[in-house]
Amino acid sequence: MRVFLILLCSLLFHISVFTQTINVEKSFVEFKVKSMKVHTINGSFKVVSGIIQLDTVNHFNEMLVLHISASSINTGIEKRDRVLKGEFYFNTAMYPTVSFLSEKVLKISQNKWEAKGMLNIKGVAHVVTIPFSIQKNIAKGNICINRLDYGVGGTGTFFVDKDVQINFKCVIN
C-alpha cells in the first residue's frame, strides 16, 4: 500500500507539470519607443522561441524562457532596420539573440503570472519582472525597459527615448 501511495504521488506530481514550446511561426515581440519626443517608432521581432513550463499543483517548477532573434527586427523601413542591426544598436553580428530566463515564476491569479529573471541584451543582463497571462494557448506579456541599461543606441535620449515598451504574444504548443 505504501509503495502504491508513493507511486501515485509521484505520478500526480509529474502530471501537474506542463512544459510547452513556443510556436516560432506564430509568435512575435513588438516594441514602441518615442523618437524626438514626438514620433513613435513601432517595430517587431518575428523570430521568437522558448518554453513555458507551468505546475498546476505545486507551482515550484514553473519557468519562462524566451529567445528572440535580434536580426529578425522589423520596423517597416529597411534602412532603419539595417541601422538597428548594426553595432550602435543591437550589434546582431556579435549578439544574435536577446534572451530571458526566469529564475522564479509566481502565479498571481487564475490566468496571470509574473516571471522574474535575467533579460540579456547585447551581453548585458539585468533582473526584470515580466507580467504575463495565458488564455487558450496564447501567452501575452509586457514590460518597459530602459534601453540605456543594455547599451542599445548610445547615451542620448532626444532622437530615441530611453524607455522602450515591449509586448509579446507567444502561441504555445
Can you give a write-up of this model?
Residues 2-15 have low confidence and may be disordered. The chain contains two helices and eleven strands, in the order αββββββαβββββ. Strand 4 (48-55) and strand 5 (63-69) form a beta hairpin. With 173 residues, it is mainly beta. It has one domain: Lipocalin (Beta Barrel). 24% of the residues are buried. The protein has helices at residues 2-16, 78-85, and strands at 17-21, 28-35, 39-45, 48-55, 63-69, 73-74, 97-109, 112-121, 124-135, 138-146, 163-171. Helices cover 13% and strands 52% of the residues.
Low-confidence stretches: 2-15
Main sheet makeup: 11 strands, antiparallel
Q: What is Rg?
A: 19 Å
Strand content: over 45%
Report the end-to-end length measured between terminal Cα atoms.
37 Å
Helical stretch tally = 2
Compressed to H and E, one letter per element, the order equals HEEEEEEHEEEEE
What structural class do you assign from the helix and strand content? mainly beta
CATH architecture: Beta Barrel
Q: Order of strands across the widest beta sheet?
A: 1-4-5-7-8-9-10-11-2-3-6
Q: CATH topology, what is it called?
A: Lipocalin
Q: How much helix is in the residues?
A: 10-25%
Shape: elongated
Q: CATH superfamily, please?
A: Lipid/polyisoprenoid-binding, YceI-like
Q: What average pLDDT do the residues reach?
A: 89
Oligomer: single chain
Question: Care to count the β-strands?
Answer: 11
